[in-house]
Amino acid sequence: MHSDLLQSAPINGVLFDLDGLLLDTEVIYTRVSQEIVSRYGKTFDWSVKANMIGRPAMDSSRHLVETLDIPMTPEEYLEEREGLLRKYLSECKPLPGAERLIRHFHRHRIPIAIATSSSQELYEIKVRRHHSWVDLFGVVVTSDNPAVKHGKPSPDIFLVAASNLGIDASRTLVFEDAPSGLEAGKAARMRVIAVPDPNMDKSRYEGAIQVLDSLPDFDPPRFGLPAFID
Length: 230
Prior knowledge:
alpha/beta, Rossmann fold
C-alpha cells in the first residue's frame, strides 16, 4: 500500500464500478459469450476475457472477434450478446460485502456513486432485484451518458461521477475490479483500490493503493473513513 497516498487529503467521496465488483455479472457475461462462440468451435476463457472486462462494449466485442477469429463483425456479436444478456442479467446476485459497504457509507453520509461501462438499459436490468441498496447511491453514471466522451481506461466516467457528486477528484476513492478501470481512476488522479477476480493476474494492478481479495477485506479507518459497527 502506498502510505503517501493514504496520508494525503482526506477522502470525501467514493466511486464504484458495478460488474464484477458489486454484482456478480461476470459469470453471466461468460455464459453468454461462450454460447455464441461455441457455434464456431471456439472457447471463451480467461485468456480472452482478461482483456475485455471493464472496457466499453464495442472495444471488448472487437477484441473477442479478432482474438477468436469468428466470422462475425463486432457489431453483429454485440447485437446478439445484448439480446442474450437481457434474458439473463436480472438473475445476477450481489458479491460478498457489497451491500454492507454501500449501506455503511450511506449511513455515514459519505457521497457514493456508480461509474459503470454498462449502458443505462443493461444497468436497469442488472439492478432490478437490488433497488433496496443500489438506490442509496447519490449518482449513477453509465457509459451512454452524453458527458462521457470516452470509455475506460479514459478517466471521463469517473470525472463525470465525481463532478455530479460535487467532490474533488484528488479526494476521491475508487473501487475497481478491472485493469482498465484502475487506469481510468489513476488518469483521473483518484486513489484506486483494486478487487480483482481471482483468475486475474495481480501484476496488472500495479498502481492501485491497495489490492483486496474481496470487499469484506476493506478496512475503512485505514483510509480515514468511519469503522464498521456491525
